[in-house]
């Protein structure tokens, strides 16, 4: 978990500076190397440090691939890309339980799950860089080439006049000093998440929700060993439950009536209520199954929201800060993961206290989601100014974010070719 914490911070910066593709490959290379080192550890500290580095680099690869998946698709297919991505997390969960059952020697198991990841290095030749990232850092000639190729593959025509004059100047190497300063400004920094009021509000709410999602998710997952029976079967079952949860999340978050915001609200609140309710059901007779049912519903609901918050967060942050923002959110989530086993120790004070804390925190997180703007079917914010404007009601008087300049017609049109990349 500490490795995840470090990786979410370090790789958020790497992805926004070096790009999604390079960040992914750095993560894959580290995950493979340190995974093999783990298998040959001679003592506990060597094992612990190697596992920390595995957590850091594997999360970097995970974050890079997720951000890329959301940026390469248009609004109508974005939830599908994000939630199907999370479904395979559950598949991996079940595969680990199967491998663990078949391979009882831990060093062999570690090699079996680490060595095949080297195949992902072939993605250097198989996938392009994210066009949205290329546009954000001013490399528009490369972005145009990728967009036009996507248009040809998907049989979506990309008109020649859809690109502005500023694109042609950049392609010919005639970028002015003003354009260069603007590009540097639009790269953004971590401080931009807190500098402007609307961006700061959205960031803090997401930080809390990610922390609670992970806290409750792992708190419930760590408790599966108390179900009795085979540890391998319990692990497999915990992964199997996640797949229908992610599928449901994909369906409800893309409905007109629910959208992202209300889907997050209902799943978090239901998860919190059932979590608290399950702990007050006497564990005997028929009520035992009532308690198990409530606990299962709680795990199902939290898993559902756990998948949706990735998509929701990626849509709220502007392109120059998307990887950094999601990475910072994940950093807060890892704090929840680190605290989860410690909070379970509160049962020594009162047996029901951990579940009550998890449930109340979950309900509060659901309520705090409501002030955030709905992102279903909306254009992703491409600049820092668009990120600050998104979800904010216009007010009379000077804008607090006027220093970033007005959104020009050129900037509005620069995202239109993204629709050429919708997967058909």
In short:
The chain is mainly α and 424 residues long.
Count of strand segments: 0
The rounded distance between the terminal residues' Cα atoms is 38 Å
Order of helices and strands: HHHHHHHHHHHHHHHHHHH
Contiguous runs where pLDDT drops below 50 for at least 5 residues: 166-185, 399-424
Radius of gyration, in Å, reads: 23 Å
Helix count, per DSSP?
Answer: 19
Description:
The chain has helices at 2-18, 20-39, 44-71, 78-102, 106-114, 123-126, 131-136, 140-153, 165-171, 177-187, 192-195, 197-222, 231-253, 259-279, 286-316, 322-343, 353-369, 384-389, 409-413. The chain is built from 19 helices and no strands. Helices cover 70% and strands 0% of the residues.
Characteristics:
single chain, 424 residues, mainly alpha, 19 helices, globular
How do the strands and helices of this protein lay out in sequence?
Blueprint: H1 2-18, H2 20-39, H3 44-71, H4 78-102, H5 106-114, H6 123-126, H7 131-136, H8 140-153, H9 165-171, H10 177-187, H11 192-195, H12 197-222, H13 231-253, H14 259-279, H15 286-316, H16 322-343, H17 353-369, H18 384-389, H19 409-413
Helix pairs in contact: 1-2, 1-3, 1-16, 2-3, 2-5, 3-4, 4-13, 4-15, 12-15, 12-16, 12-17, 13-15, 14-15, 14-17, 15-16
